[in-house]
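Q: What does the assembly look like in three dimensions?
Context provided by user:
Components: two
Sequences:
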Amino acid sequence: MDGSLQSVSGPGRVADPGEGISTQELALAARNHGLPLEGLRYDVTPPGLHYVLVHYDIPAVDATGWELTVDGLVRTPLALDIAALRSYPAVTHRVTMECAGNGRALLSPRPVSQPWLVEAVGTAEWTGVPLRILLDEAGVEPGAVEAVFTGADHGVERGVEQDYRRSLPLDVALGDFPEVLVAYAMNGEPLPPQHGYPIRLVVPGWYGMAQVKWLREVTVVDAPFTGFQQSVAYRIRQSADEPGEPVTRIAPRALMAPPGFPDFMSRHRVVRPGLVALEGRAWSGWAPVERVEVSTDGGGTWTDADVGRQARHPWAWAGWRVLWTATPGSYVLAVRATDVDGRTQPLEQPWNRGGFANNLVQRVPVLCVSP
Amino acid sequence: MDGSLQSVSGPGRVADPGEGISTQELALAARNHGLPLEGLRYDVTPPGLHYVLVHYDIPAVDATGWELTVDGLVRTPLALDIAALRSYPAVTHRVTMECAGNGRALLSPRPVSQPWLVEAVGTAEWTGVPLRILLDEAGVEPGAVEAVFTGADHGVERGVEQDYRRSLPLDVALGDFPEVLVAYAMNGEPLPPQHGYPIRLVVPGWYGMAQVKWLREVTVVDAPFTGFQQSVAYRIRQSADEPGEPVTRIAPRALMAPPGFPDFMSRHRVVRPGLVALEGRAWSGWAPVERVEVSTDGGGTWTDADVGRQARHPWAWAGWRVLWTATPGSYVLAVRATDVDGRTQPLEQPWNRGGFANNLVQRVPVLCVSP
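A: Here is the predicted structure of the complete assembly.
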């Protein structure tokens, strides 16, 4: 321990072959949490079941003094308190949000970070003010290319002390499909502390890293933002020394609400013989989900599931369902989503050093016991 | 895989020396979650931050048809729906709840189960009907010794298919200090699904395993209950073949809201030189906390912290606080609670095969950086 931030903050790394989950990864897993997969039964995820990822600490917030500033390359900088934000006409979107690192802990070799299996997802009704309304009011000046969003959570990451900060291209920030929200309510209630109280950004269709929580500042800038969370983290790269591609929208994924009942420790599923409803949710941040296929032989053969329509909630997951006649034996169920643009899920793992935007098909081992 | 439940359900075990956290333990850590320790700042834990441990699945519940039965050795069996339960005078208790396995993942060797570090705790206001009112109404018959509580969650554990089921001695079930509640509200709202919707048992001062969620049935019996969760799990034993002692009330523990700010991956804390408020919570299920001591040299020397009074809420944690003048360097902070009966926390780990009721003093490494 040499007294510098570097002494408490290691470089990014990939686990050695056979290396178990470390205490550091476990500490992240014990703080943050996924959606228990039986929670896929709810159209809108109940508070407390929606996945949560907090980079540093949940900030201590007194909403009374909270102010959102909109500044930088604008004609009229704004400073808005929560009452001012609530005075705009309220807009609500139902949005499925997923962590960019979902699935990371199943990769081989495993990128060492928050060790998600497949459960880092949730769907909520977010209410707030469209960001484009605020940017129009402030008046974006010519030459602007991005908006930078600063949250109140503060910490160190790979030796860099920082407030959490991310940017969006101006066409995304000003867009109306998806319509980016400055949100002050989740499922009709004030945001819970861990989801960004009192306000956060919601960018429908994008991975969680874009959805800046505890939002304090929107700064319009004339050059692409190169802060840590934009140019170091959240890049898709095969080796540590390449710049990589940015993580943006959510790749297609389907998940199954695990059928039957579990073993406590192995989480292995058990069903009885007979008709078993296989059901779950599927989503893509790029385009509506068109097709969901289910396999009961580990991906050898596939059956189309019925897929619910997404028309009213284009940024939320779609429900899917298919009936399976189970007979005694051991099975590996699998499910695969495809969106209307033809994007689908791979059967072999995609891999990158951060474990981002991977969307390997989910496999669910099931034992059908004798009656 | 031989087609039996045993094939998906292993025996209890202890990790090998140096064995990392397994994927099975990680799957539990990704579903269940602790209190992010900065959440110790709230007197009452906000929904979604309170620790959650679900043995099997969160059941799919339609409260409309829900019925609680009180039967067995009683004169008049009862069957109560939620409206009937709400028709009794409502009682509210503020209760600190902790998982019996809190701290397990820090033990060496590590019992393999839900891998808690120290964060499996939370405090809530629970509202419901005192259990003794219901038992008095049903009329407990002579010869009764225990009440058995059955929840709706169903699964397999070490080869035994079961509904989650636990008992209490009749004097505890009928007691008024602590007063056991059949609770239908948490912090003034209907219970969240993961906390037992629509009703659960709340046994102030006892570890979480007694607080049966999704409660369906109370059965008064004339012999000690020997079900799995009573006589196999939740026993304090050194070897697998001894009967062990039952886990009951919560051992004293103090935790610190980590000072300063964290590194994302190592969670190591960083503070600046100067006065740093060290604060947190302390509790014991046996008696009020009388003393909290803080060390900034890893337990070599101790200073008394100011401890908040618990008089209004005898079953909730007490706040504590002490000021520390930090100068650049590396520190290991520690905190230790003692209750009025003299129970305190050990500096060397206690150990048992299940990792239950261990309350080793918390140690928090902190780096104070140069200004």
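Follow-up: Chain A touches chain B through 74 residues (CB under 8 Å).
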